[in-house]
């Protein structure tokens, strides 16, 4: 891993962050989270690539993630998926366009509408987020049979990446990916944490190397569901509760 090899170099650092790879960090903090985190807390060095204009290790990592998830294009996010949702809306919609959103959509969708100067909004029914697999961070655009789908994935929620790290995936060619990239640059930090970036790549590798990563969790969820269904007075949502064309629900 590029971050590991760079951190291991025996050099004198004259760049930020000021803790100088942990040498100046308060002992109370290093004792809490360990010295390794500070050793690898590095800035945008040439060998570590540039998140805004990736051409090396970051580009390779993003391409591997896109291949794993079946995306035509994807971006690493260090401002959580909030900036990904905002960039997807801003990169897709223009002032005066119509957009349809659930009434209980994420607050980042509302902020995206403000940033995009969107004034024509149709609010549809509220989607029960807890019980139903309907990703409120998904944006679809369809024209003349073509479709582009965006999805912001918060890997720290279901996989093992660090908090605040996410991915934005795009499938389809209807939307200008360069425009979305420019929007992400407007919304993301210009000094991304390489700890967050490396955790995204590590989470991708973990899932790629273990295709049955979720099997045990799904089995436990199904077992719990079966046990709940036999408790008097407890109702568990199941597919028959919804229309026949409804996609799916949580196990």
TrEMBL record:
Cofactor requirement: pyridoxal 5'-phosphate
SUPFAM superfamilies registered for this protein in UniProt: PLP-dependent transferases
Stretches assigned to coiled coil: none
UniProt keyword list: Pyridoxal phosphate
GO molecular function, one term: catalytic activity
Entries under InterPro entries matching the protein: Orn/Lys/Arg_deCO2ase_major_dom, Orn_Lys_Arg_decarboxylase-I, PyrdxlP-dep_Trfase, PyrdxlP-dep_Trfase_major
Domain called Orn/Lys/Arg decarboxylases family 1 pyridoxal-P attachment site: residue spans: 3-117, 137-228
Family annotation (PANTHER family): ARGININE DECARBOXYLASE
Protein name: Arginine decarboxylase
Taxonomic path: Eukaryota, Viridiplantae, Streptophyta, Embryophyta, Tracheophyta
